[in-house]
Design a protein that fits this description.
Layout (H helix, E strand, L loop, with lengths): L2 H8 L28 E2 L36 E3 L23 H17 L11 H7 L9 H10 L35 E3 L2 E3 L4 H9 L5 E8 L7 H6 E2 L11 E14 L7 E6 L7 E2 L4 E2 L1 E5 L13 E4 L2 E3 L7 E8 L2 E7 L5 E5 L6 E3 L13 E5 L4 E6 L6 E6 L6 E5 L8 E6 L4 E5 L5 E5 L6 E5 L8 E6 L4 E5 L8 E5 L6 E5 L8 E6 L4 E5 L5 E5 L6 E5 L11 E6 L4 E5 L11 E4 L6 E5 L6
Parallel strand pairs: 1-6
Antiparallel strand pairs: 2-7, 3-13, 4-12, 5-7, 5-12, 7-8, 8-11, 9-10, 14-15, 14-37, 15-16, 17-18, 18-19, 19-20, 21-22, 22-23, 23-24, 25-26, 26-27, 27-28, 29-30, 30-31, 31-32, 33-34, 34-35, 35-36
């Protein structure tokens, strides 16, 4: 499948549903110790007065959904919300509001909170994360968003606790409150991040295995029809929901994201098996009578339930607070008579070394996770034979491999184009203006973009979770961004910079899109063009310095990029820290290196 088709297929239109806060409600509550046999019921009426955001859906690619769960022997009935007497790892059900189509946000955050508690074996951590922050600062809004993009956002940008940015957009029919209107002052330090996520197969056995064997709530898309009986508590006490899937309108009203937390197989080989599902429409609907307001039950028959119209299911790997995020360390690669000697500086002041590479190699480390362990590997690209020599972080940098990709005169880069968690090998050939991408999952791509004299960069500027191909043309000071969201067929241009500037990319506004940065050596100034709008200018450095961008400040975890210059004349790092608001009166200064060294930043095995 081409990159274009893979991306088009993976996009998930969110015809996100909103609901009315009024409706039929039965208030008597019974304990779940005497659960009755449920059958597929016919609702008397819909008891749901919501409106849908319009649009069409596209299927997730088959290869992305093929992650079946091996092994395991799930019981006939099980739930992560304690429905059958076990531990309730789910956090309180929330309400996305009467008008805002933000179920993509609430489903992802709900699964994220539960995964945090499950992985720590503690159902009472008190974790309560901010849906408002994710709504305001990501690319989504009350009109909807894609599931893969919110999960990428939670991995790359994270969200703080709800007390830092409480939900206020429930009554917005479109748009959202701008970021960062409601941030608390120390929100970066209060963030939580997911470590990774993946699509999984949507067959019932796989979903049950992920829930029971691996303890993962499963986020899924569902169709909503006119007869969905959300506020009919008597219905949910006795029945589960089933509806023949059809795109016809009426009765189809739109799509909605929810979280499967369990199931009940009431009879082998029958149609009486159902899923237990967490919603985001508050606790006054769903199975109120059994004490599980906010939850409902859906048939496991894929034709009449979740997967008859659209097949997509995703799980989150783990959730970590900002205090455990590995900031990048300061690295110098020094050419010696034995080849390149890498010096990695710990925040404690100690260091670690490895020999890797020979004279003439290009040292690469930032973004170079070639073994998929979440840590960066040490890479030397050798123009003389066009070969990549990779020292893996797995095994404490004692194992290596190499790949042939490129030729003398090429520019080497790395990025994860196939979204498998492993960096792909990329070379840009100035002589023909061509990008050659070798995917870790197999296959390659050639894309023509740029010309001799351009500077190539890679970053996600359009916010679709896939790298864009970017060139900066110093002769005119223009950025040309070839967008992955278009299948690399359309582009945006930005006038930003002049000849003699140094172009860089990183994150400064928390929306998951890279910002365009130039450092001007002639005046020692940084000019940052933010994807959310506006720009900032910071005076930092002088002619002869080497500019870098990374979050390296050990006094705070998470957050935006620090502005770094390395001064070869003294071997000193001068770090203008994002946490201080880039206050030049309180920089981080580290003496590390000497003239002739190559300065780099990375997070690796040594950081743990």
């Amino acid at each position: 499948m081409s990159l274009k088709m893979a991306r088009i297929a993976s996009l998930l239109f969110l015809a996100l549903l909103v609901h009315s806060s009024t409706g039929y409600l039965v208030t008597s509550v019974a304990q779940n110790g005497s659960i009755s046999h449920r059958t597929a019921g016919t609702p008397v009426s819909g008891f749901w007065n919501g409106t849908a955001k319009g649009g069409s859906l596209v299927a997730v690619p088959a290869e992305a959904m093929a992650k079946a769960s091996p092994g395991g022997d799930p019981p006939p009935s099980y739930s992560l919300n304690g429905y059958f007497g076990g531990t309730n790892y789910m956090t309180s059900v929330k309400d996305q509001g009467a008008n805002c189509g933000s179920c993509w946000d609430f489903a992802a955050i709900g699964a994220m909170e539960a995964q945090y508690q499950i992985n720590r074996g503690n159902p009472s951590t008190g974790i309560d994360l901010s849906e408002q922050d994710a709504l305001s600062c990501s690319g989504g809004d009350c009109g909807g968003w894609w599931l893969d993009l919110i999960l990428d956002y939670l991995k790359n940008s994270g969200v703080p606790d709800d007390a830092c940015s409480s939900y206020v957009d429930g009554n917005l029919a479109s748009g959202k409150t701008p970021c960062p209107t409601y941030h608390c002052s120390n929100y970066a330090a209060r963030k939580y991040y997911i470590t990774g996520w993946s699509w999984i197969s949507t067959d019932a056995a796989t979903i049950k295995n992920y829930i029971y064997t691996y303890r993962h709530p499963v986020i899924v898309w569902m169709p909503i029809f006119n007869d969905f009986p959300w506020y009919d508590a008597n219905y949910w006490q006795n029945y589960f929901y089933s509806h023949v899937a059809t795109w016809q309108e009426p009765p189809y009203r739109g799509g909605h994201f929810v979280v499967i937390v369990g199931w009940d197989d009431q009879g082998a080989g029958t149609d009486d098996d159902y899923w237990i599902v967490r919603n985001s429409w508050g606790t006054s609907g769903g199975d109120v009578n059994d004490g599980y307001g906010g939850y409902f039950y859906m048939t496991q028959n894929s034709a009449n339930g979740f997967f008859g119209m659209q097949t997509q299911a995703a799980v989150i790997a783990d959730v970590v607070p900002a205090s455990t995020i590995l900031n990048k360390d300061l690295i110098i690669a020094r050419l010696t008579s034995w080849g390149y000697l890498w010096f990695i500086h710990y925040p404690s002041g100690t260091f670690w070394t490895r020999y890797w590479g020979v004279s003439g190699d290009t040292p690469i480390v930032s973004g170079a996770d070639m073994d998929g362990d979440g840590l960066e590997d040490i890479v030397a690209w050798r123009p003389s034979d066009g070969r990549w020599y990779i020292l893996q972080s797995k095994g404490n940098y004692m194992q290596s491999f190499s790949r042939q990709w490129g030729a003398a005169g090429d520019v080497p880069l790395v990025a994860d184009f196939d979204r498998d968690g492993i960096s792909d090998l990329v070379i840009w050939r100035p002589s023909v203006g061509a990008w050659f991408i070798l995917r870790s999952s197999g296959g390659s791509a050639t894309i023509y973009w740029g010309m001799q004299g351009d500077t190539p960069l890679i970053g996600d500027r359009d916010g679709d979770g896939i790298p864009d191909l970017i060139i900066w043309r110093p002769s005119v000071g223009v950025w040309f961004v070839l967008k992955s969201s278009s299948g690399y067929t359309s582009w945006d241009t930005y006038q930003w910079g002049i000849a003699g500037d140094v172009p860089l990319l990183d994150h400064f506004d928390g929306d998951g899109k890279v910002d365009l940065v130039i450092w001007r050596p002639s005046v020692g100034a940084w000019f940052i063009l933010k994807s959310l709008g506006g720009f900032s200018v910071h005076q930092w450095g002088t002619s002869g310095d080497v500019p870098l961008l990374a979050h390296v400040d050990p006094s705070v975890y998470g957050g935006f990029a620090d502005l770094i210059i390395w001064r070869p004349s003294s071997g000193t790092w001068f770090v203008l820290r994002s946490y201080t608001g880039y206050d030049p009166s309180s920089p981080m200064v580290v003496s590390w290196g000497t003239s002739g060294d190559v300065p780099l930043t990375a997070k690796g095995y040594w950081s743990i």
